[in-house]
């Protein structure tokens, strides 16, 4: 079956030699595609071109800055020309980000496909995004843990407990 999608969101299914021209297809659309279209008018009020910019933001600024920055708005000049992107940035990384503005501007323009952004302005404001989940360390090798506990058998109980906990973390990373 071949599915032809129209701009108005409808779909037309056609089979070679059979099928009804107005029949709707049962092919689903990705949720991101549906949500982006619904959010575009809301995002456009903030001066941003598309809601997809938020999805591509980690690729544009890089993983090091993705959790600490957000695109706030794009200010378009009245007479036309290149816009200014206003980026909300956590104060702890604002200085580092200021040295990376030109590569970010270039990646942003490659995202848009033309020189849409002429400048990037940083607004320092706390940004709290969900922290990435910490990986669960692998359990340490039982033989190595037994060796560690034998070596620490003569230590005081409080010190021994702390050293065993530290050894467990070190062995889990090795």
Description:
The chain is an alpha+beta fold and 174 residues long. It has 3 domains: 43 residues, no CATH class; 79 residues, GMP Synthetase, Chain A, domain 3 (2-Layer Sandwich); 32 residues. It has 7 helices and 5 strands, in the order ββαααββααβαα. The strands form 2 sheets. A 3-stranded mixed β-sheet has the order 3-4-5. Strands 1-2 form a two-stranded antiparallel ribbon. Strand 1 and strand 2 form a beta hairpin. The longest helix is centred in the C-terminal third of the chain and has 17 residues. It is elongated and about 80 Å long. It starts with a strand and ends with a helix. The N terminus is likely disordered.
Cα radius of gyration in angstroms: 27 Å
Give unreliable regions as ranges: 1-19, 42-48
Number of domains: 3
What is the CATH architecture assignment of the largest domain? 2-Layer Sandwich
| Terminal residue distance | 53 Å
Secondary-structure element series:
EEHHHEEHHEHH
Structural class: alpha+beta
Mean pLDDT: 75
Task: Look at the structure and give the CATH class of the largest domain.
Answer: Alpha Beta
Number of DSSP strand runs: 5
Determine the CATH topology of the largest domain. GMP Synthetase, Chain A, domain 3
Brief characterization of the structure:
This is DUF721 domain-containing protein. The chain has 174 residues and is of the alpha+beta class. 42% of the residues lie in helices and 17% in strands.
Overview features:
single chain, 174 residues, alpha+beta, GMP Synthetase, Chain A, domain 3, 3 domains, three-stranded mixed beta sheet, two-stranded antiparallel sheet, 42% helix, elongated, disordered N terminus, DUF1159, DciA-like, DUF721 domain-containing protein
